[in-house]
Amino acid sequence: MNDKSFSCPVCQSPFGYLSGIFLICPECAHEWSHEENISLESTEEKSTFYDAHGTPLQHGDSVKVIKYLKVGGETIKSGTKVKSIRLLDQAVDGHDISCKIEGLGSIYLKSSVVKKC
Ligand SMILES: [Zn+2]
Q: I want to staple 76 with a disulfide (CB 3.0 to 4.6 A). Which of 7, 69, 82, 93 is the partner?
């Protein structure tokens, strides 16, 4: 038996039990999906990106680079504007932003070296 107990979202009974992928409340017979609860929690924790000042970043934001960076032999000056950034679900070598910079093409940046415009 599963010794975890789940409280019913309808009547708050603590005796909900797992049956397949559903949870069932013995008191009001409400059924709800266990999977839903899990994915809801994980999306809240996931995909939060912050710039160097702790401002949340989103897909398509414009940012400014706040550090002098070297990328593959090219240099990016502090203050360079970057339009429509893409936030990566999986960081590439610690870089969590993909973007295009005029004259340089597609590059990766770290969210810790940019500031939201
Ligand atoms: Zn219930």
A: 69
Of 77, 60, 69, the closest CA to residue 116 belongs to 60
Whole-prediction pTM: 0.58
Distance of CA 74 to the CA centre of its chain: 30
CB-based neighbours (< 5 A) of ligand 1, an ion = 8, 10-11, 13, 25, 27-28, 30
What's the 92 CA to ligand 1 centre distance in angstroms? 45
pLDDT for 108 beyond 80? yes
b/e sequence 21-47, b meaning 16+ C-beta within 10 Å:
eebbbeeeebebeeeeeeeeeeeeeee
Q: Which of 20 and 111 is assigned the larger pLDDT?
A: 111
